[in-house]
Write a structure and sequence with these properties.
The complex is a heterodimer of chains A (113) and B (111). Helices cover 0% and strands 50% of the residues of chain A. With 113 residues, chain A is mainly β. In chain A, the strands form 2 sheets. In chain A, strands 2, 4, 5, 6, 9, 10 and 11 form a 7-stranded mixed β-sheet that branches. Chain A has a 4-stranded antiparallel β-sheet with strand order 1-3-8-7, with no helix packed on it. In chain A, a hairpin with a 6-residue loop joins β4 and β5. In chain A, 37% of the residues are buried. Chain B has no helices and 11 strands. In chain B, the strands form 2 sheets. In chain B, strands 2, 4, 5, 9, 10 and 11 form a 6-stranded mixed β-sheet that branches. Chain B is globular and about 45 Å long. The termini of chain B are far apart. In chain B, 35% of the residues are buried. The chains are: A mainly beta (113), B mainly beta (111). The interface between A and B is medium-sized, with 26 and 25 residues.
Chain lengths: 113, 111
Protein backbone atom coordinates (compact mmCIF):
# COMPACT_ATOMS: atom_id res chain seq x y z
CA UNK A 1 0.00 0.00 0.00
CA UNK A 2 1.23 3.48 -0.85
CA UNK A 3 1.73 5.85 2.03
CA UNK A 4 0.57 9.43 2.22
CA UNK A 5 1.69 11.34 -0.87
CA UNK A 6 2.12 15.09 -1.26
CA UNK A 7 2.80 17.31 -4.23
CA UNK A 8 4.78 19.23 -5.16
CA UNK A 9 7.92 18.33 -3.21
CA UNK A 10 9.35 21.83 -3.37
CA UNK A 11 7.86 25.16 -4.32
CA UNK A 12 9.22 28.70 -4.60
CA UNK A 13 6.83 31.63 -4.60
CA UNK A 14 7.07 35.38 -4.13
CA UNK A 15 5.28 37.51 -1.56
CA UNK A 16 1.63 38.15 -2.37
CA UNK A 17 1.21 35.07 -4.55
CA UNK A 18 -1.15 32.20 -3.88
CA UNK A 19 -0.21 28.52 -3.54
CA UNK A 20 -2.06 25.19 -3.59
CA UNK A 21 -0.61 22.09 -1.97
CA UNK A 22 -2.01 18.61 -2.52
CA UNK A 23 -2.25 15.49 -0.40
CA UNK A 24 -3.47 11.95 -1.04
CA UNK A 25 -4.16 9.88 2.08
CA UNK A 26 -3.50 6.21 2.64
CA UNK A 27 -6.17 4.08 0.99
CA UNK A 28 -9.08 3.64 3.41
CA UNK A 29 -8.22 6.68 5.51
CA UNK A 30 -10.98 9.26 5.54
CA UNK A 31 -9.31 11.90 7.71
CA UNK A 32 -6.62 14.32 6.56
CA UNK A 33 -4.80 16.91 8.66
CA UNK A 34 -2.45 19.70 7.63
CA UNK A 35 0.50 21.03 9.60
CA UNK A 36 3.04 23.81 9.15
CA UNK A 37 6.57 23.16 10.38
CA UNK A 38 8.94 26.11 10.50
CA UNK A 39 12.63 25.21 10.62
CA UNK A 40 13.68 24.17 14.11
CA UNK A 41 10.13 23.98 15.46
CA UNK A 42 7.55 21.29 15.95
CA UNK A 43 4.62 21.05 13.51
CA UNK A 44 1.74 23.47 14.08
CA UNK A 45 -1.76 22.16 13.46
CA UNK A 46 -3.65 24.00 10.68
CA UNK A 47 -6.73 21.93 9.73
CA UNK A 48 -8.33 18.54 10.04
CA UNK A 49 -10.90 17.22 7.55
CA UNK A 50 -13.07 14.14 7.80
CA UNK A 51 -15.61 13.08 5.23
CA UNK A 52 -15.14 16.38 3.40
CA UNK A 53 -16.02 18.43 6.47
CA UNK A 54 -13.72 20.55 8.59
CA UNK A 55 -13.42 18.95 12.02
CA UNK A 56 -10.63 21.01 13.55
CA UNK A 57 -8.84 24.30 12.96
CA UNK A 58 -5.65 25.66 14.46
CA UNK A 59 -4.71 29.27 15.10
CA UNK A 60 -3.98 30.37 11.53
CA UNK A 61 -5.28 33.41 9.62
CA UNK A 62 -8.06 33.23 7.04
CA UNK A 63 -5.44 33.30 4.28
CA UNK A 64 -5.19 29.57 4.93
CA UNK A 65 -7.99 27.38 3.64
CA UNK A 66 -8.43 23.75 2.75
CA UNK A 67 -10.89 21.30 1.31
CA UNK A 68 -11.32 17.56 1.01
CA UNK A 69 -12.59 15.81 -2.08
CA UNK A 70 -14.93 12.78 -2.42
CA UNK A 71 -11.87 10.53 -2.89
CA UNK A 72 -10.55 11.91 0.46
CA UNK A 73 -7.61 13.72 -1.11
CA UNK A 74 -7.12 17.26 0.11
CA UNK A 75 -5.78 20.64 -0.94
CA UNK A 76 -4.33 23.38 1.24
CA UNK A 77 -4.51 26.91 -0.18
CA UNK A 78 -2.57 29.87 1.10
CA UNK A 79 -3.34 33.34 -0.26
CA UNK A 80 -1.30 36.55 -0.12
CA UNK A 81 1.88 34.73 0.82
CA UNK A 82 4.19 36.26 3.42
CA UNK A 83 7.87 35.55 4.02
CA UNK A 84 6.85 33.90 7.29
CA UNK A 85 4.83 31.29 5.41
CA UNK A 86 8.09 29.64 4.34
CA UNK A 87 7.99 26.21 5.96
CA UNK A 88 7.57 22.48 5.47
CA UNK A 89 3.86 21.71 5.04
CA UNK A 90 2.95 18.26 6.23
CA UNK A 91 -0.15 16.24 5.55
CA UNK A 92 -1.24 13.36 7.76
CA UNK A 93 -3.97 10.80 7.30
CA UNK A 94 -5.63 8.47 9.77
CA UNK A 95 -8.57 6.24 10.37
CA UNK A 96 -10.95 8.46 12.28
CA UNK A 97 -11.63 7.28 15.83
CA UNK A 98 -10.25 4.07 17.30
CA UNK A 99 -6.48 4.16 16.92
CA UNK A 100 -5.95 7.81 16.00
CA UNK A 101 -2.45 6.98 14.78
CA UNK A 102 -1.41 9.62 12.26
CA UNK A 103 0.63 8.74 9.20
CA UNK A 104 2.57 11.61 7.65
CA UNK A 105 3.59 12.35 4.11
CA UNK A 106 7.06 13.61 3.16
CA UNK A 107 5.91 17.22 3.10
CA UNK A 108 6.05 20.13 0.67
CA UNK A 109 8.88 22.60 1.21
CA UNK A 110 7.52 26.11 0.47
CA UNK A 111 9.94 28.99 0.12
CA UNK A 112 8.53 32.51 -0.13
CA UNK A 113 10.92 35.14 -1.51
CA UNK B 1 -3.97 26.73 25.66
CA UNK B 2 -2.07 23.46 25.60
CA UNK B 3 1.71 23.76 25.57
CA UNK B 4 4.01 20.83 24.93
CA UNK B 5 7.65 20.95 25.99
CA UNK B 6 10.45 18.51 25.27
CA UNK B 7 13.64 18.27 27.25
CA UNK B 8 16.46 18.10 26.38
CA UNK B 9 16.47 19.94 23.05
CA UNK B 10 19.51 17.95 21.96
CA UNK B 11 21.20 14.81 23.21
CA UNK B 12 24.38 13.02 22.17
CA UNK B 13 25.13 9.50 23.44
CA UNK B 14 27.57 6.70 22.59
CA UNK B 15 26.23 3.67 20.78
CA UNK B 16 24.73 1.02 23.07
CA UNK B 17 23.58 3.40 25.77
CA UNK B 18 20.02 3.41 27.09
CA UNK B 19 18.36 6.81 27.06
CA UNK B 20 15.19 8.65 28.06
CA UNK B 21 13.48 11.51 26.24
CA UNK B 22 10.98 13.66 28.09
CA UNK B 23 7.73 15.32 27.05
CA UNK B 24 5.52 17.46 29.26
CA UNK B 25 2.16 19.07 28.57
CA UNK B 26 0.27 21.73 30.51
CA UNK B 27 -3.35 20.52 30.18
CA UNK B 28 -4.02 16.94 31.29
CA UNK B 29 -7.30 16.81 29.32
CA UNK B 30 -5.86 14.87 26.40
CA UNK B 31 -7.20 11.96 24.37
CA UNK B 32 -3.86 10.44 23.49
CA UNK B 33 -0.14 11.10 23.10
CA UNK B 34 1.95 10.02 20.16
CA UNK B 35 5.72 9.82 19.68
CA UNK B 36 7.24 10.43 16.26
CA UNK B 37 10.64 10.34 14.68
CA UNK B 38 11.70 12.84 12.01
CA UNK B 39 14.79 12.57 9.84
CA UNK B 40 16.25 15.84 8.47
CA UNK B 41 13.97 17.46 5.88
CA UNK B 42 11.55 14.53 5.97
CA UNK B 43 8.06 13.77 7.19
CA UNK B 44 7.25 12.17 10.52
CA UNK B 45 7.22 8.46 11.28
CA UNK B 46 4.86 7.27 14.01
CA UNK B 47 6.61 5.28 16.74
CA UNK B 48 4.08 4.74 19.52
CA UNK B 49 0.63 5.99 20.45
CA UNK B 50 -0.66 5.88 24.03
CA UNK B 51 -4.36 6.38 24.71
CA UNK B 52 -5.24 8.54 27.72
CA UNK B 53 -6.44 5.44 29.60
CA UNK B 54 -3.13 3.61 29.08
CA UNK B 55 0.10 3.87 31.06
CA UNK B 56 2.61 2.61 28.52
CA UNK B 57 3.24 1.13 25.10
CA UNK B 58 6.18 -0.90 23.84
CA UNK B 59 7.55 -1.58 20.37
CA UNK B 60 10.87 -3.36 20.04
CA UNK B 61 13.57 -1.31 21.77
CA UNK B 62 11.14 1.55 22.45
CA UNK B 63 8.94 2.01 25.50
CA UNK B 64 6.72 5.02 26.04
CA UNK B 65 4.99 5.85 29.31
CA UNK B 66 2.22 8.32 30.09
CA UNK B 67 1.32 9.96 33.40
CA UNK B 68 -1.65 12.08 32.43
CA UNK B 69 -2.25 13.55 35.86
CA UNK B 70 1.25 15.00 36.05
CA UNK B 71 1.34 15.94 32.37
CA UNK B 72 4.37 13.84 31.50
CA UNK B 73 5.46 11.21 29.03
CA UNK B 74 8.81 9.54 28.52
CA UNK B 75 10.26 7.65 25.57
CA UNK B 76 12.84 5.06 26.58
CA UNK B 77 15.23 3.80 23.90
CA UNK B 78 17.23 0.70 24.81
CA UNK B 79 20.65 -0.14 23.38
CA UNK B 80 20.82 2.90 21.11
CA UNK B 81 22.18 2.55 17.56
CA UNK B 82 23.55 5.14 15.09
CA UNK B 83 20.40 4.60 13.00
CA UNK B 84 18.37 5.99 15.90
CA UNK B 85 19.86 9.44 15.21
CA UNK B 86 16.94 11.72 14.38
CA UNK B 87 14.63 14.28 15.96
CA UNK B 88 12.00 12.81 18.26
CA UNK B 89 8.69 14.64 18.64
CA UNK B 90 5.75 14.08 20.95
CA UNK B 91 2.22 15.25 20.19
CA UNK B 92 -1.01 15.31 22.20
CA UNK B 93 -4.56 15.23 20.91
CA UNK B 94 -6.81 17.65 22.79
CA UNK B 95 -10.47 18.68 22.62
CA UNK B 96 -11.81 20.02 19.33
CA UNK B 97 -9.58 17.67 17.34
CA UNK B 98 -6.60 19.88 18.13
CA UNK B 99 -3.13 18.40 17.94
CA UNK B 100 -0.17 19.99 19.73
CA UNK B 101 3.45 19.08 19.07
CA UNK B 102 6.56 19.70 21.12
CA UNK B 103 9.66 21.24 19.54
CA UNK B 104 11.50 17.94 19.57
CA UNK B 105 14.68 16.39 20.92
CA UNK B 106 17.53 16.02 18.43
CA UNK B 107 19.30 12.73 19.16
CA UNK B 108 22.77 11.82 17.92
CA UNK B 109 24.10 8.33 18.60
CA UNK B 110 27.86 8.20 18.19
CA UNK B 111 29.34 4.95 16.78
Amino acid sequence: DAGVTQSPTHLIKTRGQQVTLRCSPISGHKSVSWYQQVLGQGPQFIFQYYEKEERGRGNFPDRFSARQFPNYSSELNVNALLLGDSALYLCASREYGATDTQYFGPGTRLTVL
Amino acid sequence: KQEVTQIPAALSVPEGENLVLNCSFTDSAIYNLQWFRQDPGKGLTSLLLIQSSQREQTSGRLNASLDKSSGRSTLYIAASQPGDSATYLCAVKAAGNQFYFGTGTSLTVIP
